[in-house]
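Task: sequence design from structure.
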């Protein structure tokens, strides 16, 4: 089993990355290797709804002059996909949504490339907006026929300044339990 965690935060050493690394650490301790991909220095343009992926069915997006394809291929390769985003003005970071919109279109146009993969979202904000952003990201998993385990709460945390998420003990515990449930589910399905 292989996991990919994708951070939509534009900040280095972001709170979002801290949460995603926690997930990967838990998965790794359970024998599931993985990698963190940051969208921070990548350019991923928004979907143009040109439907070329639907017509061509070749796992390629017609927008070829950005960093989409390597991230998309990592997602296709993975058994577990976790996405994380900070909350900006009440919603997910635009780079994350550009990635998910395009990945969803290409994946669905090519036989459901994400169908029955495991995963789920993680969000972090200073004060509010986590639940909406969590739901916004969760919708992507649902429409792509994916399996998302629960946790002891929604996979959200509170923080603004760098590394402040480490002070949100409940948020950390929730995200760690989510990752434990991912590992449990992955092992159960392997049998």
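Answer:
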């Amino acid at each position: 089993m292989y996991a990919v965690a994708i951070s939509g935060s534009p900040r280095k050493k972001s709170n979002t990355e801290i949460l995603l690394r926690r997930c990967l650490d838990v998965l790794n301790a359970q024998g599931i290797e993985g990698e963190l991909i940051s969208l921070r220095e990548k350019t991923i343009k928004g979907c143009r709804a040109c439907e070329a992926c639907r017509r061509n069915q070749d796992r390629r997006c017609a927008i070829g002059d950005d960093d989409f394809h390597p991230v998309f291929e990592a997602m296709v390769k993975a058994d577990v996909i976790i996405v994380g985003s900070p909350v900006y003005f009440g919603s997910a970071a635009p780079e994350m949504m550009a990635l998910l919109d395009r990945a969803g279109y290409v994946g669905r146009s090519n036989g459901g490339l994400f169908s029955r993969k495991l995963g789920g979202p993680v969000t972090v904000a200073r004060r509010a907006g986590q639940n909406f952003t969590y739901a916004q990201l969760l919708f992507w998993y649902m429409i792509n026929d994916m399996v998302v385990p629960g946790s002891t709460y929604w996979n959200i945390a509170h923080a603004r300044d760098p590394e402040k998420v480490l002070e949100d003990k409940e948020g950390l515990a929730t995200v760690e339990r989510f990752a434990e449930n991912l590992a449990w589910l992955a092992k159960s399905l392997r049998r």
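The chain has a mean pLDDT of 96.
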